[in-house]
Amino acid sequence: MKTEQQKKNHIPVEEVISQHRGLLYYVIRPVVGDENLVDDCFSSIIEIIVKNYEKFDSDRGTLTAWLTKVARNGAVNFIQNKKYAMTAVVAEDASGLKEVADHKTPEDHLIEKENLAELKEALKSLDKLEAEILLRKYYYMQETRQIGAELGLSERAVEGRLYRIKKKMMKKMGGADHD
After folding, report:
1. Taking a C-beta distance cutoff of 8 angstroms, is the pair 137, 144 a contact?
2. Domain span at residue 38?
3. Residues 131, 91: one domain?
4. pLDDT, tens digit (0-9, with 9 covering 90-100), for 127-142
5. Among 116, 126, 135, 140, which Cα is nearest to 26's?
6. Cα–Cα distance measured from residue 62 to residue 12, given in angstroms and rounded to the nearest whole number
7. pTM more than 0.70
8. What is the pLDDT averaged over residues 152-174?
9. Cα torsion for 19, 22, 28, 33, to the nearest 10°?
10. Does a structural domain hold residue 179?
11. Measuring CA to CA, how many Å separate 84 from each of 43, 72, 110?
């Protein structure tokens, strides 16, 4: 339940969307990739924000962080739904295979949980710039050129850092090629 102070600080959703329109497009565009679908995706993200705006809790993080997360996850879901719609006919023929492929044993769940904990530990070992580059490349799906331009690095420097970051992560996580 929101306190009175939180309710007073709550900006109307229309104003939030208007103020953060650029940020939303900035997050959506690299995920969607196809410029023809960006506006459709933006519309679906706006629907999500409007429906879930009351769930935003300023005690858990900033509005910008919440909007960024909603936009990124919404864009990924949008693309997955588009791909699903295009392959629905094929999926009907193979519907029985999905159930077999999705079945996970308790051992699978435990291994997944251990791998996630190991990944979190490896991510903690990165410095701020390394974490920023990794986040932009693999979470926000930005192009190397864009990352470099926004961080003041050359494209080649970003590629080199990504290579070293991946090697560092592999070594921390006990990968086979970490020499």
Report:
1. yes
2. 4-95
3. no
4. 999 988 988 888 888 8
5. 140
6. 15
7. no
8. 90
9. 160
10. no
11. 19, 18, 29
